[in-house]
What we know:
By secondary structure, the protein is mainly α. The protein has one domain: Glycerol uptake facilitator protein (Up-down Bundle). It contains 10 helices and no strands. The longest helix is centred in the middle third of the chain and has 33 residues, at 108-140.
Amino acid sequence: xxxxxxxxxxxxxxxxxxxxxxxxxxxxxxxxxxxxxxxxxxxxxxxxxxxxxxxxxxxxxxxxxxxxxxxxxxxxxxxxxxxxxxxxxxxxxxxxxxxxxxxxxxxxxxxxxxxxxxxxxxxxxxxxxxxxxxxxxxxxxxxxxxxxxxxxxxxxxxxxxxxxxxxxxxxxxxxxxxxxxxxxxxxxxxxxxxxxxxxxxxxxxxxxxxxxxxxxxxxxxxxxxxxxxxxxxxxxxxxxxxxxxxxxxxxxxxxxxxxxxxxxxxxxxxxxxxxxxxxxxxxxxxxxxxxxxxxxxxxxxxxxxxx
Length: 307
């Protein structure tokens, strides 16, 4: 077996080790942002500047478009990267799996970096594709990029708090709650002791989880629920001219916002992980429930081989 492993490593090189995992996380997060930010670009700038309508963000209609767009983005990102890493595509998920599912802490920094780079480059691609629509919308609405009135086109890339939230506490609570639900539900649908999703449908279920969070808990702060999803595109928006609207995130009611979608989703993810395990998984273990037949107890990421 060791000889076969060595031969495979020589033949396929980086694809058989951790570097292959990092590429998968990069590519999965890249796809997530391409389709997630892409649907927002459609709602904000492209549709109304293409002769297909004149108004943006008309409450429920556009919000449903965005919610379902992000859900599908997550679904297909997981289908792309899931066979290699399980498709974390979210630092909050990676850290939660390290805390409660035995994912190696040594791999956490690399996964997070890959996710951030993928998110940044995904935002770059969306901007390249929709630059004409964005510029047209800015011109039609007399928007100066980087000024307070440029939040609509900035919002294509990253999140911001609702005007009725008057300090950082509301958005922080929002991110804790949204990400706690996300991680708890991900743990539930992948728990071999509970009712794990079969027939390769887990990506669709996780996508529906994101849709549910978006349409139930999305308006307060844009449901980032993913530090890489927010910070990578936010950094690009800052470089592309949105200035203080992107970094540090000055929206009047909260004037240093960028750290909120970084820190509090991680806190929320850990809350969701510990609550799920305490309430459900530990109860299943205590009752001696066996793993579901045909379901692997461990993820599909590459495991470090002992010498």
